[in-house]
Amino acid sequence: MQDQNVSGHYTPPDHQLTATGEPAPTKRKRKYWIWGLIAIVVALIFYWACPRKQSSQNQSMVMRRSLAGPVTITTAAAEKGDIGVYLNAIGTVTALYTDSITAQATGVITGIYYKEGQFVRKGDMLIQLDARPYEAQVTEAEGVLERDQNLLAQAQMDLERYKQAWSRNAIPRQTYEDQEKIVKQDEGSVKNDQGTLRYYQLQAAYCHITSPITGRVGLRLVDPGNLVTANATTTLVVVTETQPITVVATISEDDLSQVMSQPDHGVNLPLEAWDRTSQQKIATGKVISYDNQIDTTTGTLKLRALFPNRSGALYPNEFVNTRLLVKTLRDQILLPASAIQHNGTETFVYVIQNGKAIMRDVKAGVSNEGETVVEGVNAGDVVADSSFEKLQNGAAVVVSKMQLPTTSTEGTAP
User: What range defines the domain where residue 394 resides?
Assistant: First the structure.
C-alpha cells in the first residue's frame, strides 16, 4: 500500500521528492525527447536516400535498355527544297454583287419566270407585272405628242408666210414677231409631250423585271397575283453573283510590313481557301485589294481576294480558313516536323551515324504542311523519326523504315 496523508491525497515516496519537497520529473518525459530526435534522424536519412535511389533507378533503366538491344526506329532524311511562308486567318466568302430587286412600278404580278436557285444571265426575264395601264398611258401620250407636232408644223408654215409678207411690207412687224413666239410655244409643247411619253414608256418597261447581273437566284419571295407597290421596301427577288467570287480575310498589323514589302504592295499574292477543319483546300485565288485603314479594335487589316469559282465550291457568306502565301524561301534544309524534338527551350534531333543515335542541337524555322526549316543539319543527314521515348544519346539503333523525301510544291510568291 502506498502512503496516503490524512487528507486522502497521494504522497510520493521520500525518494521521489526533491530537497524542497517537490515531486521529481519522471523518466517518461525524457523518453519523448528521445523519440522526437529519432524521427528527425529518420526523416533526414529518407530525404538524402530518395535522390540516390532515383539516380540508381535511372542507371538501372539505361542498363536494362542497353541489355535489351538496339532500338528499332524509322528515319527521315534532311533534304534541300523550297518552303512557303504563310499567314493564316479566318475569311468570309463575299459576292462581288448582290442585288435585292424591288418594284419600280405599281402593279399585279402576272408571271414568275425563274426557278429557285437557278443560274441566270444579265437581261434574263424574272418577273412580269401587269403593264396594261402603262401601255394605255403610252398610247395617250403618243396621241398628244402627234397633235402638238402637227400644231407646231402649222405654226412653222404660218411663220414662213408671215416672213415673206413682212418682207413685202404686207403685214406689220408685230404680226411676224408674234408668230415666231407661237412657234416657240408649240416647240415647248412638243418637248413636254415627248417627256411624258418617255415617262410612261419607262413605267411600262418597269413591268418587265429582268436580271441586272449574271448570278444565282435565291428562294422565291412573291407569287403571281400579288400586288406590288412602286418604291416599296419589299424585295421581289435576290440575285447574287457567284462566278467570280471573293474572300475577305484579315491580317495582323504585325505582319503588314512583310506583306507590303512584296511587289505591288502584296496585290496578286496567292490566297488559299480551306474548309473549317483545315484539312481540304477548296480553291486558290489572288489578292486584288486591301482596306485603306487598320481596324483599331482588332489590330487587323482586311484584304479581298478574287476566286474564279467555276466549280461553285465557294458559297456566299461561308466561313473559310485562309492561307496567304507571302513569300517562298528557296534552297532551305527541310526535315519532317515529327523528327524535331523539344526539351524546354532546347530543340534537337537524333542523327543516325554508324548505327547510333547522336543527339544534335538544331534551330527550327518556318513550318508548312509537316515540313520545317532547320539549321544544324546538312542535306542528306538521316535522323530518327520514331521511338523517341526509348532513345538516348549514343543508343544503338536499327532502321526498320526510311521515310521518303517529299517534293515541295509551294506557290510562286516572290
Answer: 69-83+330-403
